[in-house]
């Protein structure tokens, strides 16, 4: 018989991505079930009362849709896509039923996250939802996805979303208590692994496949997700979402499961990437912008921009200079041609000058690193 996990303190966090698997939202016959979701929603509500933010990545749309259609009429890829379309409304309704705050559904494909413009649009939308006090519920857009309907997609999607929203931690609620030295369902000598300094090939080799009929991923995809999150400096927590007491302890600051650490902090990982990513151009700023960036940690606004050099696109990493001396680097929200038109102007003029607006920031403070930082 496999041993049980012991409690350990949660890492400090302000924003988390909570991934909830299909096995926690469905009964054995495929019906949508709110039993386990209720305790997870209570954790989300408790966290929000403490000033924290939680983004939910939720599976279960295909399983929910299956109860609304005859199984023999919903086979193959197109059948799964139709089931996802049927099930999405039920899935969102389930989550909304737990919260007084509004739930905002966001459907993504990997193409949305690979394409630079769509990635930034998704990032901006999620930031705005959180700023409005809403609870984003994200799912793979199975209705239109083709090759994305594959093993463990939402585990990996959750890791990408965690990096997308600058989460401090990725929490994966599953139907297993955490990582073991072997599959605890088949090996009675499997021992719990409560803390992992870094995911290695040995960990991946010990992981199994999909755990349930309703789910599309197993422990291997959760470890793959942890690797993706770690690359962004985000820790991953694995725990049993069926165990209401375990979930309640999360709200009290205690994990009963596995903590998969990141080699470097989230901030350090992002700063490292920004420092070393190839620059596509340069923005030169005035004295006021220099002071705002260095002394106040502000975002770069168009009013502080003197001119842009190069032919960069929205989403590129660019250098920020003052008096021809590089002083920062960041991800730019507007193309070089746009910045030349709005340089020195007030943020309220952006839409009238361009005919559209991606927000008031030329470079958001979360996407900027000062080169004088240690």
From TrEMBL:
GO molecular function: ATP binding; glutamate 5-kinase activity; RNA binding
Boundaries of every PUA domain copy: 281-363
Similarity section: Belongs to the glutamate 5-kinase family.
Residues involved in ATP binding: 19, 174-175, 216-222
PROSITE patterns according to UniProt: GLUTAMATE_5_KINASE, PUA
Biological role stated in the UniProt entry: Catalyzes the transfer of a phosphate group to glutamate to form L-glutamate 5-phosphate.
Keywords (A to Z) from UniProt: Amino-acid biosynthesis, ATP-binding, Cytoplasm, Kinase, Nucleotide-binding, Proline biosynthesis, Transferase
Keyword Protease: no
PANTHER family membership: GLUTAMATE 5-KINASE, ISOPENTENYL PHOSPHATE KINASE
Gene Ontology annotations for the cellular component aspect, listed alphabetically: cytosol
Keyword ATP-binding listed: yes
Main localization, broad class: cytoplasm
Pfam families for this protein: AA_kinase, PUA
HAMAP family: ProB
GO process terms (BP): L-proline biosynthetic process
Pathway of action: Amino-acid biosynthesis; L-proline biosynthesis; L-glutamate 5-semialdehyde from L-glutamate: step 1/2
Name of the molecule in the record: Glutamate 5-kinase
Compartments reported by the entry: Cytoplasm
Catalytic reaction equation(s): L-glutamate + ATP = L-glutamyl 5-phosphate + ADP
Coiled coil: none
Residues holding substrate: 59, 142, 154
EC identifiers of the protein: 2.7.2.11
Classification via SMART domains: PUA
């Amino acid at each position: 018989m496999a041993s049980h996990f012991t409690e350990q303190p949660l890492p400090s966090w302000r924003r988390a991505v909570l991934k909830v698997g299909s096995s926690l939202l469905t009964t054995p016959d495929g019906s949508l079930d709110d039993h386990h979701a209720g305790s997870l929603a209570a954790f989300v509500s408790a966290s929000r009362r403490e000033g924290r933010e939680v983004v939910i990545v939720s599976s279960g749309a295909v399983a929910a849709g299956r109860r609304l259609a005859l199984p023999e009429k919903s086979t193959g890829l197109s059948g799964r896509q139709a089931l996802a379309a049927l099930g999405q409304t039920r899935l969102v309704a389930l989550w909304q039923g737990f919260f007084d705050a509004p739930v905002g559904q966001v459907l993504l494909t990997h193409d949305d996250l690979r394409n630079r413009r769509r990635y930034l649009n998704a990032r901006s939308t999620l930031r705005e939802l959180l700023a409005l006090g809403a609870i984003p519920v994200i799912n793979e857009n199975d209705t239109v996805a083709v090759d994305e309907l594959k093993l463990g997609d939402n585990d990996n999607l959750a890791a990408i979303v965690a990096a997308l929203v600058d989460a401090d931690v990725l929490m994966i609620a599953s139907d297993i208590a955490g990582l073991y030295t072997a599959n605890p369902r088949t090996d009675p000598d499997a021992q719990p692994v409560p803390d992992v300094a870094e995911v290695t090939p040995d960990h991946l080799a010990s992981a199994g496949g999909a755990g349930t009929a309703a789910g599309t991923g197993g422990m291997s995809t959760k470890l793959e997700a942890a690797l993706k999150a770690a690359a962004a400096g985000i820790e991953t927590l694995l725990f049993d979402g069926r165990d209401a007491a375990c979930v309640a302890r999360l709200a009290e600051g205690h994990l009963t499961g596995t903590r998969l650490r990141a080699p470097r902090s989230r901030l350090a990982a992002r700063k490292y990437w920004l420092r070393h990513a190839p620059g596509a151009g340069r923005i030169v700023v005035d004295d006021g912008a220099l002071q705002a960036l260095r002394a106040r940690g502000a975002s770069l606004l168009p009013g502080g921009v003197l001119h842009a050099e190069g032919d960069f696109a929205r989403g590129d990493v660019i250098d920020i200079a003052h008096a021809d001396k590089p002083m920062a680097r960041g991800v730019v929200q507007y193309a070089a041609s746009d910045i030349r038109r709005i340089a020195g102007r007030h943020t309220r003029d952006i839409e009238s000058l361009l005919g559209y607006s991606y927000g008031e920031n030329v470079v958001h403070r979360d996407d900027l690193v000062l080169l004088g930082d240690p």
